Batch of 2 targets.
Target 1
Amino acid sequence: MEQPGLDLFQNHYLKGSFVQEIYYNEENQYGVFLLRVMEATEDLDTDEVTVVGRMMRPHPDETVICYGEWKEHPRYGKQYHAEMVKKELPRSREAVTKYLASGLFPGVGKKTAEKIVEHLGPDALTKAADDPGLLAEVPGLTDARAQTIAESLREHHSLEQALVYLYQFGMGPATALKVVQAFKGATLEVVKNNPYRMIDEVEGVGFRRADEIARQTGMALDAPERFQAAALYALQEASLSHGHVYVSEAELMGGIEPLLAPDGEACFPAEKRKILLMKMAEEERLIEDHGNYYLPSLFWAEHGLAMRVREILERSVEPTPAHELFKAVGDVEEKLKVAYAERQREAMTTAVDSSFMILTGGPGTGKTTVIRGICHLFAHLEECSIDPGDYENTENPFPIRLVAPTGRAAKRMSEATGMPATTIHRLLGWRGDFFERDADHPIEGSLLIVDEVSMLDVWLANQLIRAVPKGMKVVLVGDDDQLPSVGPGKVLHHLLQVKEIPRVELTDIYRQEGGSSIIHLAHALKKGEVPTDLTEPKPDRRFFPCQRNQALSIILQTYRNAMDRGYTLFDVQVMAPMYKGPAGVNGINEALQQEVNPPKDGKREISWGETIFRQGDKVLQLSNHPEHPVYNGDMGHVSALEPDARQDDPVLWVQFDRQEVPYKRSQLNQLSLAYACSVHKAQGSEFEIVIFPLLMSYRRMLQRNLIYTGITRAKSYLILCGETDALALGVKSRDKEVRNSQLTDLIEMEW
Ligand SMILES: Nc1ncnc2c1ncn2[C@@H]1O[C@H](COP(=O)(O)OP(=O)(O)OP(=O)(O)O)[C@@H](O)[C@H]1O
């Protein structure tokens, strides 16, 4: 949340000098310091206080003014929470000497610092920053050294000035610090000349904030930069919030209009807009293609993906003689002790006889069983081993690559097939900002099977398919009725529109021999129907009708019942369509944490923003961890905590399935509590028991594929609670499912 600007804090402050750093995190500029107070707006009974907050890293003896308030910490007692910290340049001889010798200025030790102060007096800092030539007059300082000192002085000075400048626009300290971090010495110049650059480079600055600053710095309403920033912002919004790969000109204008209102029309008439868009296209800041507008990265990803799919489709595969295939399938059935149904056999034979195929089907239709069959059939026909042990200590790569977008889905695949499976990111050697595997360094093996393909966005799909080597067959597996990817595109859906791609759809339900009422409910909802027996208790599902204000207590009660029956935290998952509100993910997490893992003497905890992580808490990894193989959507529990750890030491450990991962304080933003999570975060996972509130207050988010995805996460028991109308409304709603993409046409066109 944006913090209020300088003026609001003026009436309460502490002024003093920092005497000791207790903790400082360079990444988010959060620090804890001991301050010797020189001046305060109230009487204090001590002259040394602990100050916490975000600030440019102070150094010993630096004079600062902290604006904020007192808070009582359960463990550390009374602390001053600074909303904003302003630095003052030191003024006394002694303080200036210490400042110069503090290590901030390369090559300046105590002796040199003393010489500078002796020569320029206590105003040495301002004098030298204004006129670097003066430093060169200090005896013993070479010109080069004088120059370096002046430059770092000016930089420190200008960062402080830049912060104060940003505060004037009502920008909160957290965002202001990020701006300064992004542009360093050039901050003032950027903000004055083109504040719109902040949108791309500073997280938390959107078009409106940048536009407000542009108004206050006197930038013209019809400045080209304004229109161009609005166009890029509208394009990003279209892809990140609505999943479009491109927008038509009319859609683009529709996105831009509210950003420029009310003076958009007057400042940017149609002709001028056209010229500005053309200029952006020339500069490759966006791509125009047949009247459609793309972000460049999306244009190249979609075209790259289409081209490679086309190329794989065109690879010829020698068909296996029918009798041989028939016998091989029989051998596999015997080996696996499964009598495959006709359609399942067709899926297996299509997979081994095609260069590219898609296998689809709803829950319980046997997709995983068929994946296992495909692997064995492939190995049988290719006469290769699929025993991982046979590949240990050899140069030969394992012939089959099984991958899924999430760690949990990969784990399920591995358990079901008895073969290694990994996340796509791991297979592609993701290194935080790039993938090691690409067209020049392809993955190894002869068959690639990708599960949960509905979760793949255009960027990741392109990255994966471009790393497929010549000769490798590709089988994509997924359920097109599930939620589409969080990122742009609807890859599985659009691939299914390509008539040439061989595909098999499984429709018969096998799970629990078709007796599962969860699966039947899922298949009914998929068709937009709400079964008449929805609220009747079933052996594997219940619907508790309730009002919004009763939902939370039903969730707590059912969760508690499940725990009492011996289910673990990881067997039971609450899912909600929204984060906010009393029955939103955040509220449910707080209440469940209190219910199943309350504070206790001796139980350690650590707070991070609004969240408290406590020993034993169930937690969710929110992004792919760059250092450890843990991925977005992985769940674990807090196994250890060291809240007093020094900077750069881990403060919290999470035990995931196979490993314990340490987190530094600065990495805690990768975690959230996981008693409840959004349906998107649960995609690709299954749980014994799912508790899913459905309320009219979620109306905006309720969509057929969201409800369908949520309830199909339940393996053994599904508990729905809320309003039946909300479910009925949700399954009728499919508006948000349309996503602009050219993928189908691009694959089908002649290359
Ligand atoms: N031909 C078959 N004969 C008997 N049982 C089968 C057959 N095919 C699948 N099954 C059984 O049906 C159940 C569901 O199969 P599977 O897990 O492969 O489906 P799925 O489509 O992957 O489902 P989900 O997506 O819900 O995990 C499993 O218990 C499996 O053993």
Target 2
Amino acid sequence: MPTQTVALPLAKNDVRTARSNSPRYRAIDQLSGGDPAMLDLIERGKRLIDRGIPVLILGETGTGKEYLSRALHEYSERRQAAWVAVNCASIPESLAESELFGYCKGAFSGALPGGMKGRVQQADGGTLFLDEIGDMPFALQTRLLRVLSEREVIPLGAPHPVPVDVQLICATHQDLKTLIAEGRFREDLYYRIAGGVLRLPALRERADRRRLIMQMIADELGGQPDEHVIAPAALQRMLAYPWPGNLRQMHAVIRYSCAVMNDGRIEVRDLPEELMQFTAANLGHTGQAANVRPIVPQADAMAFPSRQSGDPLRDERTRVIDALVGSRWNISAASRQLGMCRASLYRKLRQLDIPHVRDQAMPAYAVA
Ligand SMILES: Nc1ncnc2c1ncn2[C@@H]1O[C@H](COP(=O)(O)OP(=O)(O)OP(=O)(O)O)[C@@H](O)[C@H]1O
């Protein structure tokens, strides 16, 4: 199945030129681990895709917009033809027109002798994925609008238009309505590209995080999902973490953890720094608590006096809090996990300034 990505000479940040090294795309039905909003979105996407309706995928960075675009193409009747991705944010304005629409022999000095087919024409019969559409230069928006309404392109220097038939999928993390209000995005183009809008949920809002984590670990290690490959405290931390970088960040964390773990099991110490430093108590400060289901009454993190970095007791305190949160404050289970008796754990709580949950009006910890 042909796949093309833009590798513009001056594009410094088109990360997708690396796709050929790690193209682990998923089929459309594998994009959800059972999250109801995702299941609904997938069903709507499947119904839309072969109707000649342009699809607009919205979502925060790293929520899987490109994966969804690719999966929709693979599901569609156009799957035998090309899926051509263009990152509108990384096209230098001076090259944009020729890259997108192509040019004829001798169109300008420095042009390839035989001319060049533009990306739109390369996607003929298949799918054109315009990523970061909100960053498309205004002048180019006007040209694109014409292509979409006339269903033809005029390569630079060409005497006649060339008909094209593409399924258009656009994506952006930006609020296009705001860009329109600011005069940075054409309203008529918006209505042309937003035939069907699919809004991907942020990872912190998804109810299928546990299954996603297990599936990503299984993919990384090869094999079936298996909860034994991750310690409960490490899993709890991943479930409670707000994932500002969404699936991209989760994937990177899992790759890292699988690379550094010992004895085939991910422990808290195998998590990268941002998760090591994260304790559920941070939720009170990040404002993410609304997306996280509390296991104990919600709380003010100040209830647990925090220790500064460099404090030798800090790591131990984090480890103890994780065990307590992971066991839902079951002291016997937490002490077993920490390898100490119940009396020692109570002593530790006093030594590390961790008030027992029952002694607080509003204890601080939450898990997903
Ligand atoms: N369903 C999935 N399963 C596993 N990993 C995924 C999935 N979706 C996305 N990823 C991971 O997240 C990364 C980002 O995905 P993708 O490029 O589709 O997101 P995006 O929303 O288009 O990002 P951006 O807004 O930055 O362009 C992928 O490279 C992959 O590592």
